[in-house]
Amino acid sequence: MPRPLKHHEQKLLKHSNLYDWETDRNDEAVMGKYGIRKRSQLTQYRKTARKIRELTVNLAELPPSDEVRMATTNRLALLLYELGLNMNPKATLNELKEFEASALMKRRLPVVLKEIKMAPNIESATNFVEHGHVRVGPTVVKEINYHLKKGQEDFVTWTDGSTMQKKVQRFRDEQDDFIGK
């Protein structure tokens, strides 16, 4: 049994919450893993995932043969598939009930850059995006919260004239001698 706290110790502990410190540490780890800089962004991802799960729970309350339930389930599954958030375009409600916020965070551009090995870690991937070294298709993207849809990761490249592109070409011995070094 621990000793009772002295008066000044009680006063110090009055302003700190000993119950929430573990969740704060977990939030920091998640934010670091996905390169999220603001806690409000993490909260927004979690709210979006929760709304999707709540929608599936509400749809599950309808009778299984209801046309609205079937149509909405199919639309939601197809939408999540097209956004790259779900692997099954014909997902059932039970599969959609398990939707997590991490699916949203994995589609952020810096995370995909690390995944396709264009960056060694999330921090450098974030810097590449912020400094304008990356484009998706013909568009240069400088927003680190940019979400890639399904199939867009094939169109992620370095921008023309980017120092990173030059370094990669020099490493692969593909740099044009006419352009110079």
UniProtKB/TrEMBL annotation:
GO terms for biological process: ribosomal small subunit biogenesis; rRNA processing. InterPro entries: Ribosomal_uS4, Ribosomal_uS4_N, S4_RNA-bd, S4_RNA-bd_sf. The lineage of its organism: Eukaryota, Metamonada, Diplomonadida, Hexamitidae, Hexamitinae. It is found in: Nucleus, Nucleolus. It comes from the Eukaryota. Keywords: Nucleus, Ribonucleoprotein, Ribosome biogenesis, RNA-binding. PANTHER family: 30S 40S RIBOSOMAL PROTEIN (PTHR11831), U3 SMALL NUCLEOLAR RIBONUCLEOPROTEIN PROTEIN IMP3 (PTHR11831:SF1). Residues 107-169 form the RNA-binding S4 domain. Its main location: nucleus. This is U3 small nucleolar ribonucleoprotein IMP3. One of its GO terms (cellular component) is Mpp10 complex. Gene3D superfamilies: RNA-binding S4 domain. One of its GO terms (molecular function) is rRNA binding. Belongs to the universal ribosomal protein uS4 family.
